[in-house]
Design a protein that fits this description.
The chain is of the alpha/beta class. The chain has helices at residues 3-15, 82-89, 123-137, 152-163, 207-220, 261-270, and strands at residues 40-48, 51-59, 69-75, 98-102, 106-107, 112-113, 140-150, 170-174, 193-199, 229-230, 237-238, 246-251. It is 26% helix and 25% strand. The protein starts with a helix and ends with a helix.
């Protein structure tokens, strides 16, 4: 992602004042449970207000018709695409889940494609519409919806976890930051389980941004201050004192998506 666009996205996000919104529905199964399953990769189009938006849908052969199935959403970074995210993220393989690579729109204020964390913006309604579309077409287990994202996508994942409490069971922000400002002020529910991945040499989104995310979800999830212990995948550690699991995965690289991240995130999500 061009550094200029990253800076624009992060600065705009930091200036947005936000407040909590209503919790999304968490019905166990979806209307689509009566439909047949068609494995493969397709681009889906949905209406969000007057706009037409899209997402890349990947359904492995292991998904069984009529069986409530978890959803793993993946959010690309700024100036990127859903198709490119599928190539480098390495999520899932044939693990039985519905994989959704969301596509951000062009954001004029940032000068490129990117996610807008403002609750009054276009992207929160997009995710509401996306999940509604999935529930109508597939046998979704709505209590097992997960989200991961890189950079600007990671900021959006953290925003979703705050602005749509109960929507996500676990998150995995990579090379990102947030939540920012007053986004979660006033909420009393615990946050989702979290696996935070960040490079110590990241010069685009500094390490302290990832540390803030870690500490935020630790506090929300009832961390008792217990020392972390090593866990898979290396170099991750787990904070056993948190009521809801929090993993911190600090690596030596920069603003990257390490090769172990995709399998590690998939295993983390599908362990719930």
């Amino acid at each position: 992602m061009p550094r200029r666009l990253v800076v624009s996205l992060l600065c705009l996000a930091a200036l947005i004042a936000v407040s909590p919104v209503a919790q999304a529905s968490t019905a166990t199964t979806a209307p689509g449970c009566g439909r047949t399953v068609t494995p493969g990769s397709t681009t889906q189009t949905i209406a969000v207000g007057a706009a037409s938006r899209s997402y890349l849908l990947v359904v492995p052969t292991g998904v069984v018709a009529g069986t409530p199935t978890p959803v793993i959403m993946a959010l690309h970074g700024g100036s990127d695409t859903a198709q490119n995210a599928q190539r480098y993220m390495g999520l899932g393989g044939q693990r039985p889940a519905i994989y959704v690579y969301a596509q951000a729109p062009y954001w004029p204020e940032a000068g490129g494609v990117g996610w807008n964390v403002d609750p009054a913006g276009v992207d929160l309604p997009y995710f509401d519409a996306l999940l509604a579309d999935l529930r109508n077409k597939h046998c979704v287990d709505s209590t097992r919806v997960f989200a991961t994202g890189k950079s600007n996508g990671a900021f959006m994942v953290n925003a979703l976890a705050c602005l749509r409490p109960g929507m996500l069971r676990a998150i995995a922000p990579v090379a990102g930051g947030g939540p920012q400002g007053s986004r979660c002020t006033g909420t009393t529910t615990r946050g989702p389980a979290a696996m935070i991945v960040h490079g110590a040499a990241d010069t685009v989104v500094p390490l302290r941004s990832g540390q803030f995310t870690r500490d935020y979800w630790l506090a929300r999830n009832g961390n008792t201050g217990a020392a972390p212990t090593p866990t898979a995948p290396a170099p991750c550690v787990r904070y056993p004192g948190a009521v809801v699991p929090v993993l911190w995965c600090q690596h030596t690289g920069g603003h990257t998506w390490p090769s172990w991240t995709g399998p590690g995130v998939t295993n983390f999500f599908l362990s719930f």
